[in-house]
Amino acid sequence: MLLFKKVEQLQKHLKTVRNDLRTIGFVPTMGALHEGHLSLIEAAANRCDFVVCSVFVNPAQFNDDNDLESYPRIPEKDIEALCKSSCNALFYPDVEEVYPKGWTSDAPTDFGYLTQTMEAIHRPGHFEGVAKVVKRLLDIVQPDELFMGQKDFQQCAIVTEMLRRLKMPVEVVCCDTIREKDGLAMSSRNLLLSDQERSKAPALFKSLLLAKDLLDRVSVPEIEQKALELQKLAGFQPEYFSIVDGHNLRPVTDPQQHNFIVACTAAKLGKVRLIDNLILRREF
Ligand code: AMP
Hints:
Elements: E1 2-4, H1 7-19, E2 24-29, H2 35-47, E3 50-55, H3 65-70, H4 75-84, E4 89-91, H5 95-98, H6 119-122, H7 126-141, E5 145-149, H8 153-165, E6 171-175, H9 195-200, H10 203-214, H11 220-233, E7 237-245, E8 260-269, E9 272-282
Parallel strand pairs: 1-4, 2-3, 2-5, 3-4, 5-6
Antiparallel strand pairs: 7-8, 8-9
Helix pairs in contact: 7-8, 10-11
C-alpha cells in the first residue's frame, strides 16, 4: 500500500492510475479503523480498480473541542489494518494540507430540511464541516465512486444531495452498517466506552429493533416513546429517536403513506455519544 501525506504527490500518482483507464474508489474516514471501515474498502475494491482511503480527523465537523481532543487516534494500527486490506493508497494529510492558509471552501452549507433535523439540531455546524471536508477531499482525489456507511444515514443523504446539486460526476455507494455480535454498530467512539458502558451499549440497537417490531402495530409517537424508554432504562441519555422518511428525512406520521422508513437515534452513554439507525421499511 502506498502512503501519501501531500496532496501533490497523491494527485501525481492518481494521474497515472487515470491514464491507465483504471477507476478510483474513495473511502474517507477519520481513522481508528474497524471492520465497518474495512467493509467500505472491500466494497470499493469490488467495484473499482484502485482504492484510496483517507484518514483525517476533520476539526471542521466537531462542534465540541473536548470531543475533537478525545477522538481516538491510532495511526500505527490503522496503517497495519489498511496494509492487510484491499486499500491501494492511504491519504494521511495534516490539517494544513487539507485546509491551507488562504484557502476558502466552496462547499454548499444549506441543504434545506436535510440540514434542519436530527444531527443538524444536536450538532450545530457539524454538516457544514462534513460538506467542507468531503468537497475538498473529492476535489483532491477525483474518484469515480465514493463509499460511505449507512451508519451515518443523514450524512449519506446530505453528501448525495451535495453531489447532485454540484453535478459532480461521482457515484455515492451507501454501504450496510457492520455490527458487533451483540448488535452494537461498530464505531471508533466505541473505544471510548468503559467496560460497564460497553455492556449497556447494545440497548441502542435493541431500541431500533423494537421500533421495527412495533411499526404498523402502534402509532409512531408511541413507538418513539417506547424506544426512548428502553434506552433510558439501559442507562442512556437519549438525544432523539426519530422515525423518518428515508428519501427526505421528514417525520413519518402515517407509515402506510411511505415506502422508505428509517428509525434514527442518538444517545449518550456517560460522555460518549453514539448514533445508529435501522431501515424499518424499504419497498422500491
Ligand atoms: P468515520 O471514520 O466515523 O468518519 O467513518 C468513515 C466512514 O465509515 C463513514 O462513511 C461511516 O458512515 C462509515 N462507517 C462508520 N461506522 C461504520 C459501520 N459500523 N459500518 C459501516 N460503515 C461505517
